[in-house]
Amino acid sequence: MSVADLVAGLRESRGFRHKTDIVDVVSSLARHLPRGSRDLDQAVALGDDCAALDCAALADGTGYLLFAIEGMVSDFVSAIPWFAGYSSVMVNVSDIYAMGGRPLAVVDALWSSGIDAAQEVLAGMAAASVAYGVPIVGGHTNTRSDAAQLAVSIVGRANALLSSFNARPGDRLMMAVDLRGRFEEPYPFWNASVNAPPGRLRADLELLPHLAESGLCDAAKDISMAGTLGTALMLLECSKVGARIDLDRIPKPDGVTLERWLTAFPSYGFLLSVREENVQKVQALFDSRELACSVIGTLDATREVVVHRQGDAALLWDFSCEPFIVAPGGVQ
After folding, report:
1. C-alpha distances in Å from residue 106, one per residue of 6, 136, 138, 161
2. Could you tell me if 231 and 324 are in contact, meaning their C-beta atoms sit under 8 angstroms apart?
3. Which of 99, 129, 210, 323 has the least C-beta neighbours within 10 A?
4. Cα-to-chain-centroid distance, residue 45
5. Crossing angle of helices 3-11/227-238, nearest 10°?
6. Are 17 and 302 in contact (CB under 8 A)?
7. For residue range 55-83, what is the model confidence (pLDDT) as tens digits?
8. What are 97-137's pLDDT values in tens digits?
9. Where, residue-wise, is CATH 3.90.650.10 in the chain?
10. How many CA atoms lie within 13 A of 329 on its CB side?
11. How many whole angstroms separate alpha carbon 134 and alpha carbon 309?
12. CB 152 within 8 A of CB 69
């Protein structure tokens, strides 16, 4: 498959389409909110993994309060209810760590047709709560619904932020991922969490706030349903930069094609924008945890994202012509 064909397939993928929908949602919301209507001081604009509220503005000391929510796709909840419940907690935990924070607690909103249909979802949520050490402290339940729906929200705290808005031209784009897993067939979910020791899961995630607090990195994003390249687009667009990404340098499991891996949603996967002088130190931290980590590209001052492989290259996105998740005029 040529790189141009690969790019064409990604642009039409479900993960990419779901992310580009964000532009219309944010634009519509902005039209209905009066300017200056926010009461809280957001430390980052819309478009990051979490909302980050400056704790000084909340009369709550230093650092940041992190707040996020994830909704599970309904066909996923219906087909694999236990893993959907597990994932609903796991992905929220990942969002908090992707911002340099540590999770405090989650709440859920669950709809099902009877309590029996909800049992597997709840069991999966409970298993993830135990594995990651994050309590489920409440929520909303409706067991008289005609469809399965699940959303989970999380709150956390950060001393220093990793943000999608801090990447700079000249940074190295690094990918860190846990390859010790398997796909939850036939879905694109790479599961390196369920069978892992809880202590290892928590210690692996602790690398992210360590990076933020040590000053080794200030820009990151967790790899989402948009896959590696879609997540890269979100990070790059928020920071108003471009990049050249080498597909051959993307860490992937043995026996998995690049085409499939680029659409995968890993249970542990992060993109980091790292100053060149810090690359070796960041690399060493992930190496010490036996996590795959590699420099996969270089950021530049263009608004274009070009992907290449062995002399074959194609334009993935041109932000100057087409938004990905950022509405025209920004998402402030």
Report:
1. 37, 5, 7, 20
2. no
3. 210
4. 16
5. 80
6. no
7. 765 555 678 999 999 988 888 888 899 99
8. 999 999 999 999 999 888 888 999 999 999 999 999 999 99
9. 3-24+162-318
10. 5
11. 41
12. yes
Give me the phi and psi of 29, to 5 degrees please.
Answer: -60, -45
Tell me: the pLDDT tens digits for 262-314?
999 999 999 999 999 999 999 999 999 999 999 999 999 999 999 999 999 99
Distance of CA 75 to the CA centre of its chain: 20
293, HSE (Cβ side, Cα atoms, 13 Å) = 23
Asked whether 52 and 65 are in contact (CB, 8 A), the reply is: yes
In 3D, which of 267, 134, 154, 159 has the Cα closest to residue 211? 159
Token reading at 324: 């990905």
> Which residue in 59, 55, 142, 71 sits closest to 104, CA to CA?
55
- DSSP category for residue 121: H
CATH 3.30.1330.10 domain span(s) along the chain: 40-158
CB 47 within 8 A of CB 325: yes
The torsion region of residue 22 among left (phi > 0), alpha (psi -120 to 50) and beta comes to: alpha
Contact predicate 173/271, CB 8 Å = yes
Do 246 and 196 form a contact (C-beta atoms < 8 A)? no
Cβ density class 122-160: b for 16+ within 10 Å, e for less:
bebbebbbebbebebeeeeeeeeeeebbbbbbbbbbbeb
Residue 72: how many CA atoms within 13 Å on its side-chain side?
A: 32
Domain at 40-158, CATH from 3.60.21.10, 3.30.1330.10, 3.20.20.140, 3.30.230.80: 3.30.1330.10
68 within 8 A of 91, measured Cβ to Cβ: no
Calpha distance 233→189 (Å, rounded): 20
Class of domain 3-24+162-318: alpha beta
